[in-house]
Automatic annotation (TrEMBL):
It comes from the Bacteria. InterPro entries: AB_hydrolase_1, AB_hydrolase_fold, Carboxylesterase_BioH. This is Pimeloyl-ACP methyl ester carboxylesterase. It comes from Nonomuraea dietziae. The lineage of its organism: Bacteria, Bacillati, Actinomycetota, Actinomycetes, Streptosporangiales. Residues 23-136 form the AB hydrolase-1 domain. GO terms for molecular function: catalytic activity. It holds the Pfam family Abhydrolase_1.
Length: 257
């Protein structure tokens, strides 16, 4: 395990690292997740093996610290990751990021462009989202609680029961405040939006999504901005878990540009 202090209060981001050739390959998890459980098989896959790989956990999640006074905005997540990558000597890295991690990775690339050489997004959030009216899995299942105190009082337990044992295995490692604030920040998005930032980035970019979702309505606009849009068969939102071979080969192909 490796770590870097990223806040003045001593809070540290931690990651699991595999030695290998540069440029560094950095994996960033989604909301309530942790990078090693989701990405270790990807890093070890023959299509990607041999690369220096960092499976990094954002503040508030996994094995990283959980400062209770952080707002956990997408910008704060990105800036903290930037400090960690600087200390890890991982400039110009290839970033592979899932779901909320994709929104953070786009923000990282926009705010700290020297740190990101190529970007691969796995079913990432690109746009602000209205507050939900009914409970359902994911960010909306958390943001249905209109106040943080309501979430802390009973939403945390209800959410853990609601998401099922697989997601709960990593979500239970998250700080409840971090989980709620991150979810609300993801719904608000950034200014400019993640999509606007993604379309303006001058680096190679790819967006991977489940083929079961059908043709994305934004495919033309993304490809027009130079983003490769790739449908991955036989998977749901957790592409890397559902179709390891398909995901690893798609990432390797995207990083061959």
């Amino acid at each position: 395990m490796h770590s870097a202090q990223v806040l003045p209060d001593g809070s540290r981001i931690r990651w699991v690292e595999i030695a290998g050739v540069e440029p560094t390959l950095v994996f960033v998890h989604g909301l309530g997740a942790s990078s090693a459980p989701y990405f270790a098989p990807v890093a070890a896959h023959p299509a990607l093996a041999g690369r220096r790989s960092l499976m990094i956990d954002m503040l508030g999640f996994g094995i990283s610290d959980r400062p209770a006074d952080l707002a956990y905005t997408l910008e704060e997540h990105a800036d903290a990751l930037a400090v960690a990558l600087e200390q890890a000597s991982a400039g110009g890295a290839d970033i592979v990021a899932h779901s909320m991690g994709g929104a953070v990775a786009i923000t990282l690339a926009a705010r700290h462009p020297h740190l990101v050489g190529r970007l691969v997004l796995a079913d990432a959030n690109l746009d602000p989202t209205p507050l939900p009216q009914t409970r359902r899995p994911g960010t909306s299942g958390i943001a249905v609680y209109r106040t943080e105190q309501e979430f802390l009082d009973h939403g945390w337990k209800e959410t853990m029961d609601f998401v099922g044992p697989h997601w709960a295995a990593t979500m239970r490692l998250a700080g409840p405040e971090a989980l709620y604030r991150s979810a609300m920040s993801l719904l608000r998005g950034t200014v400019p939006t993640m999509r606007e930032n993604l379309e303006k980035l001058p680096i190679p970019r790819a967006f991977l999504y489940p083929a079961a979702d059908g043709v994305r309505a934004d495919t033309e606009s993304l490809t027009g901005a130079g983003v490769r849009v790739v449908a991955i068969p036989d998977c749901g939102h957790n592409i890397m878990l559902d179709n390891l071979d398909g995901f690893a080969h798609a990432v390797a192909d995207a990083l061959s540009v």
